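Hi R.,

As promised on Friday, here is the backbone we talked about, encoded as C-alpha cells. Could you run it through your design pipeline when you get a chance and send me back a sequence?
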C-alpha cells in the first residue's frame, strides 16, 4: 500500500547545492545522526571515492548538522563478504539513506538482484525516508540508462535493468535526471547527456514511460500523504504514449495524478511469476503487498561472516560511545576548574561528587587534572 511508504526525494542533480538543502532537511527531520547512512556504490570505481565520501559527509555536517555514516559497497567482488554483510546490517538499521553521483550502470550492477535492492524497498515500506540524486536516481525505475556507455563510449542506445523501486509507489517509468542539461553547447546533451534523438531511438526499440527531472530540481514523493512535489530551479517532465506533461517548480499535486500518467501496460516480473504459481497450484492470491526474500540453507560460513560483521558494528558503536563519554567527563572537569577559579567551591565539589558517584576518580595535581575509571 502506497500510503504506508516513506518519503523519497529524487534529484536531477545538485545534491549538495544550497537551493536543495531544504529537501534534505525535510527528509531528515527528527532523525539522529547515528541512523543516517550514505551508500558509496555509484562512485565506488572512481579513484577519488574517498574524497567524495568526505565531501558529502562535510555537506551534511556543515549544512544540516548531521554526521552521516558510510555504508560502503564499492566492488561486485565484495558481494557476500564480511564487509558486504556489515553494510547490509547498517542499512537495515538506517532511518535515512542517501545515494548520489557516479555511474548509473555501475550502481545498478552492484545493487540489482541482491539484498541491497530488497533493503531499499523494505526501508521505504517501513515508512522511512531516502534521497537519491543523479546517478543513483537513474537506477530507481524499471530501466537504468547507461549514460557513460552511450554518451562517452558511443554504444547504440540501450537500457539496463533498473531496481524498479518506484513500482512500490505504483509508478511505471524510467528516470532521467539531468533532463535539461545544456553542457554540450553545440550538441544536444539533454536527457542526461544522451540527447533527444538517441532517447527517441531507444524508446522506439524498447518503450518506457519517462520521468525527467531537471538539474538542481527535486521530485519529492510522500506515500503517507499521497502527494508529490517539485522543488528547485527546474521542472518535472513526464513522457508517456499520450504526450508530454510538465510540472513546474513549486507544484504540489495528488500522487494519483502521477500514477495515472505513469501506468504500466505490462505485467511486472513479480506478477508474471505469481500468475504462473497460481496456475500450477490452483489458487489465487488476493493481495500481496510485499514478498520477502527467503534465505534457505544458508551456509555456515555465511552465518559466521554475518556474526563477525555484527560484532564489528557493536565494537565501533562502543568506541563512539567511549569518545562521547570522555568528552562529557572532560567538559565537566573543565567546568569544575572554572568554578574553582571563581571560588565557587560548593558547585565545583558537587561536580566532583557526581563524577565520583559514577566510579570516576579525579586527581588534582596543579594545572593538570587527570581522571580514571575505578574498577
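Update: got your reply. Pasting your designed sequence below so it's all in one thread:
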Amino acid at each position: 500500500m502506497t500510503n504506508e511508504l516513506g518519503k523519497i526525494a529524487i534529484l536531477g542533480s545538485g545534491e549538495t547545492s544550497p537551493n536543495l538543502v531544504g529537501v534534505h532537511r525535510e527528509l531528515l527531520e527528527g532523525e539522529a545522526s547515528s541512523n543516517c547512512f550514505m551508500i558509496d556504490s555509484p562512485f565506488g570505481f572512481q579513484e577519488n571515492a574517498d574524497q567524495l565520501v568526505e565531501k558529502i559527509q562535510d555537506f551534511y555536517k556543515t549544512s544540516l548538522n548531521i554526521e552521516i555514516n558510510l555504508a560502503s559497497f564499492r566492488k561486485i567482488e565484495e558481494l557476500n563478504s564480511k564487509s558486504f554483510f556489515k553494510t547490509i546490517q547498517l542499512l537495515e538499521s538506517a532511518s535515512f539513506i542517501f545515494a548520489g553521483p557516479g555511474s548509473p550502470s555501475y550502481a545498478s550492477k552492484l545493487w540489482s538482484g541482491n539484498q541491497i535492492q530488497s533493503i531499499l524497498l523494505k526501508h521505504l515500506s517501513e515508512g522511512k525516508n531516502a534521497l537519491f540524486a543523479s546517478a543513483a536516481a537513474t537506477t530507481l525505475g524499471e530501466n537504468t540508462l547507461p549514460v557513460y556507455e552511450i554518451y562517452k563510449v558511443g554504444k547504440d542506445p540501450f537500457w539496463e535493468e533498473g531496481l524498479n523501486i518506484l513500482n512500490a509507489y505504483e509508478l511505471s517509468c524510467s528516470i532521467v535526471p539531468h533532463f535539461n542539461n545544456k553542457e554540450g553547447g553545440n550538441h544536444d546533451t539533454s536527457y542526461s547527456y544522451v540527447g533527444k534523438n538517441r532517447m527517441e531511438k531507444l524508446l522506439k526499440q524498447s518503450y518506457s514511460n519517462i520521468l525527467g527531472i531537471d538539474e538542481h530540481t527535486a521530485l519529492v514523493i510522500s506515500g503517507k500523504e499521497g502527494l508529490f512535489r517539485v522543488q528547485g530551479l527546474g521542472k518535472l517532465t513526464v513522457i508517456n504514449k499520450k504526450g508530454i506533461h510538465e510540472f513546474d517548480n513549486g507544484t504540489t499535486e495528488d500522487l494519483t495524478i502521477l500514477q495515472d500518467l505513469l501506468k504500466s501496460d505490462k505485467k511486472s516480473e513479480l506478477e508474471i511469476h505469481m500468475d504462473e504459481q497460481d496456475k500450477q497450484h490452483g489458487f489465487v492470491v488476493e493481495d500481496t503487498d510485499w514478498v520477502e526474500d527467503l534465505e534457505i540453507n544458508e551456509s555456515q560460513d555465511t552465518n559466521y561472516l554475518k556474526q563477525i560483521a555484527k560484532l564489528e558494528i557493536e565494537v565501533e558503536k562502543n568506541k563512539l560511545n567511549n569518545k562521547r563519554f570522555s568528552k562529557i567527563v572532560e567538559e565537566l572537569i573543565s567546568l569544575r576548574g572554572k568554578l574553582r577559579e571563581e571560588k565557587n567551591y560548593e558547585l565545583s565539589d558537587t561536580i566532583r561528587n557526581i563524577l565520583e558517584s559514577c566510579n570516576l576518580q579525579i586527581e588534582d595535581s596543579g594545572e593538570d587534572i587527570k581522571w580514571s575509571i575505578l574498577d
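One thing I noticed while checking it: The domain at 2-272 is CATH 3.40.50.880 (Rossmann fold).

Thanks again,
M.
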